[in-house]
């Protein structure tokens, strides 16, 4: 990698993160996402630790200060200094009651993938590399976060195991982080699309983003209907199978759930807790993913509709994410690599670009629309991490170089055109900038892969 290119990218990434800091947290982007997002905060902390570790810890703590009493970490924490009209669906639509010492309407009631234990461990590792004093200070941060991270995991592995198979269910596509992925199409087809909701509630995203890049009105009406159903049930998870139209076990969400337990193995050792609790739970989740979300016929991982028991027919980037897990059977890891290298996704060795969010050969592949084709840096970062876990070092380095080159050439965009590499969506996007810093630093094999 050219030295000047790396230096330029490092400088621009650090500038994006500095510009998106808001009081005590990071926003994903100033115009389109003016609040704090859950899994964004985790990815951001990983990179922010290189340039401002104090802010990295503050961002994670700000998020977990909004944790619900049941352990869930809301997918958005609303900034009280941001006007209601600046983002939809905003605080009034979610109408979350006050909890703990949090004011009413301070967050949403959904969750996102639990990347936070992974982030906390990575921020700690970065601090520990600077000596005993930094390690001690970072250890104090871990002590504060650890019980909250455990509560998050227990919520997801307990209340959200709606299928009884040892997997967490998502109750809304937004919870996956892969909002309008084709992986949800089959399950979403049974969700009523009340387009009248869009007359009552005006979409804010289309005022600041191209409609061709965003979810359709039909999708959005279904999203709002699912929120209303969950909200009107008091955001209660008991009995969801009987009253909620969307319950899905996602391979990406659950792979991150298991990887978080592996990060907690190391965090527990630092804070003086029992690491084996987390090791056992990681193995159980990995086994459940391997058993219930793997399609033997096509040798791919797919999401499962809890209500019907059927696997999604769509081949999406979410199906590559179980590669994160060191206990995944070897033949399944090899199948993921074969899928990633196939014309459907085309690793950088064949395309020169990171992998897209959806099967390139599928009739519905869309080069512009959000998670239905474009390239996203965060899932490619996770895929590279999985490659390193399973020893695919050459492929991991190719992917790292492709990501760095893409962001350097096109900018710190939210996502990228899967054929031209042009930036799409929000510019100056925080997790793209943060993960660029981590890719430039390149600390190689994730520590959790060595968990005993």
TrEMBL record:
Record InterPro entries: 6-hairpin_glycosidase_sf, 6hp_glycosidase-like_sf, Glycoside_hydrolase_63, MGH1-like_GH
Keywords: Glycosidase, Hydrolase
GO BP terms in the entry: oligosaccharide metabolic process; protein N-linked glycosylation
Residue intervals of the Mannosylglycerate hydrolase MGH1-like glycoside hydrolase domain: 33-432
One MF annotation (Gene Ontology) recorded for this entry: Glc3Man9GlcNAc2 oligosaccharide glucosidase activity
Tree of life domain: Bacteria
Pfam families for this protein: MGH1-like_GH
Keyword set includes Cell inner membrane: no
Entry's family note: Belongs to the glycosyl hydrolase 63 family.
Protein name (record): Mannosylglycerate hydrolase MGH1-like glycoside hydrolase domain-containing protein
């Amino acid at each position: 990698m050219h030295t000047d290119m790396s230096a330029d990218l490092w400088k621009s990434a650090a500038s994006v993160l500095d510009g998106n800091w808001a009081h005590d947290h990071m926003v994903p982007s100033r115009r389109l996402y003016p609040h704090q997002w859950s899994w964004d905060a985790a990815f951001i902390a990983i990179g922010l630790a290189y340039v401002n570790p104090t802010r990295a810890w503050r961002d994670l703590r700000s998020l977990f200060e909004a944790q619900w009493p049941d352990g869930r970490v809301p997918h958005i924490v609303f900034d009280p200094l941001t006007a209601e009209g600046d983002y939809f669906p905003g605080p009034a639509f979610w109408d979350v009651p006050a909890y703990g010492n949090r004011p009413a309407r301070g967050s949403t009631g959904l969750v996102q993938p639990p990347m936070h234990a992974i982030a906390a461990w990575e921020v700690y590792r970065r601090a520990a590399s600077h000596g005993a004093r930094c390690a001690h200070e970072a250890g104090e941060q871990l002590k504060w976060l650890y019980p909250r991270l455990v509560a998050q995991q227990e919520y997801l592995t307990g209340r959200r195991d709606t299928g009884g198979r040892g997997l967490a269910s998502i109750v809304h596509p937004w919870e996956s982080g892969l909002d309008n992925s084709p992986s949800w199409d089959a399950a979403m087809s049974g969700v009523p699309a009340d387009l009248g909701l869009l007359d009552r509630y005006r979409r804010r995203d289309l005022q600041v983003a191209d409609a061709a890049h965003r979810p359709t009105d039909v999708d959005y009406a279904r999203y709002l209907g699912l929120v209303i159903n969950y909200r009107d049930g008091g955001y209660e998870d008991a009995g969801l199978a009987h009253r909620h139209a969307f319950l899905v076990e996602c391979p990406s969400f659950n792979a991150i759930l298991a990887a978080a337990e592996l990060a907690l193995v190391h965090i527990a050792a630092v804070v003086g807790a029992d690491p084996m609790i987390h090791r056992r739970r990681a193995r159980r989740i990995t086994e459940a993913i391997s058993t219930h979300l793997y399609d033997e016929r096509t040798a791919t991982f797919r999401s499962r509709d809890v209500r019907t028991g059927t696997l999604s027919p769509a081949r999406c980037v979410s199906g590559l994410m179980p590669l994160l897990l060191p206990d995944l059977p070897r033949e399944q890891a090899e199948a993921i690599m074969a899928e990633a290298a196939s014309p459907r996704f085309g690793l950088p060795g064949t395309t020169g670009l990171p992998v897209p969010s959806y099967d390139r050969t599928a009739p519905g592949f869309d080069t512009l629309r959000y998670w239905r084709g474009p390239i996203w840096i965060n899932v490619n970062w996770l895929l590279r991490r999985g490659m390193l876990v399973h020893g695919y070092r050459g492929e991991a380095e190719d992917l790292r170089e492709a990501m760095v080159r893409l962001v350097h050439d096109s900018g710190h965009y939210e996502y990228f055109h899967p054929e031209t590499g042009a930036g799409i969506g929000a510019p100056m996007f925080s997790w793209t900038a943060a993960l660029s810093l981590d890719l430039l630093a390149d600390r190689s094999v994730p520590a959790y892969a060595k968990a005993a």
